[in-house]
Amino acid sequence: MALGAPIFPRSSMRDIQQFDGGFPSFSQPQEVGCFSLSRRDDQRRQYHDDARALKPLVRRGPGPVVTHLNINLDQGMDVFIDHKQEYKMTEHLEFLLQWIAHHPTEFNKLRPKIQMVCWRGKLHELLTTPYDRQNGWILCVCKIDGILYMSSFENRNHESRRLSETKKDRTFMYWGFKFEQYMTNQPDDEKEFKKPVDNFESFQTVLFSRLKNTGILYGAEMDCYDPEVGTEKAPDRYVELKTARNIENNRQYQNFCNHKLMKFWAQSFIAGVPLIVVGFRNDYGRVSSTEEIPTQSISRRVRVMLTSYEGFFELLRTEKLITKTARCFMIIGKRTAMASQHLRQFPGRLFTLCPSNCRGGV
């Protein structure tokens, strides 16, 4: 069936005013489980039903802002063990489904409350959609035993960027992983810092939250935990680690707030992570300072983002999209032109739903 066929809805997120309603309820995410991933071979990862990959945050000094640092993010780039994006895209919901298979009791307790299963990354893409000027997305949603399982596929824009990746792009990606290595090991542990950075390894938390009428079970990768937090109740102790260029003038500060900080907030807010640690670097990969930013202190644009988010899920739940002949459907999001002069500051987005060739898989 062709895209945009009449029986499937075509909806627009261009008009931000349509989401100008009350702040939708979003319950504090609760951790219901966790697992770790490690390298199996050059392409695949291995599931471990434990928290072996969870590491502590190692601060570089007292207080929320630490200066006079000299962290070299370029170190070891020539031996980087990279789990390439094309292989990650083929994993879909594999490891989250493995957790469900390993924990039927926990899953069945929550089952009556769950309407959707997915990764945190998909929620982040949807949450930032009204403000993202560059990226589109392709999601696949399958309804199995009353639950929507949502995964994604690479679109042409992402594929083009991946295939045309430059050395600079690869360097920026590596710096982020190297910063995580530095912030989860003791500063004088030179032996550890000489080890190759391996982005196959990760710790994943499994969370449950509710956005108004939609109960969501989702997995989220966590960078580390804060050993200074007294409570063991996750995700309150988790920390996100990020890097950003040094801010030298007001324009750079505005760009940081409007772009990076907004994405940092969305990623942390969805998972209930209370703290973000940002390493500020120069153009040569040298981090000179770190700053701790409480997630709750980042409040710009929150209401509009969540109301558009809730409206999208309500569409999936209430529209008659799933039939005996179409258990799965694709959702294609793309850039569109602005609908009005007043809303020019917001990027447009249009999404179309159509049947998928999926046959019950996710």
List the helices and strands and how they pair.
Layout: E1 10-12, E2 30-39, E3 45-48, E4 65-66, E5 71-72, H1 85-88, H2 94-102, H3 104-110, E6 116-119, H4 120-127, E7 137-144, E8 147-153, H5 156-163, H6 167-182, H7 190-193, E9 202-211, E10 214-222, E11 224-225, E12 238-245, H8 250-271, E13 275-281, E14 286-294, H9 302-318, E15 328-336, E16 348-355
Parallel strand pairs: 6-8, 6-10, 12-13
Antiparallel strand pairs: 1-16, 2-3, 2-9, 4-14, 5-14, 7-8, 7-15, 9-10, 11-12, 13-14, 15-16
Can you put this structure into words, describing what you see?
There is one protein chain. With 362 residues, this protein is α+β, with helices and mostly antiparallel strands. It contains 9 helices and 16 strands. The chain has helices at residues 85-88, 94-102, 104-110, 120-127, 156-163, 167-182, 190-193, 250-271, 302-318, and strands at 10-12, 30-39, 45-48, 65-66, 71-72, 116-119, 137-144, 147-153, 202-211, 214-222, 224-225, 238-245, 275-281, 286-294, 328-336, 348-355. It has a 10-stranded mixed β-sheet with strand order 1-16-15-7-8-6-10-9-2-3, sandwiched between helices. Strands 4, 5, 11, 12, 13 and 14 form a 6-stranded mixed β-sheet that branches. The two termini are 20 Å apart. 30% of the residues are buried. Residues 1-11, 322-326 and 334-362 have low confidence and may be disordered.
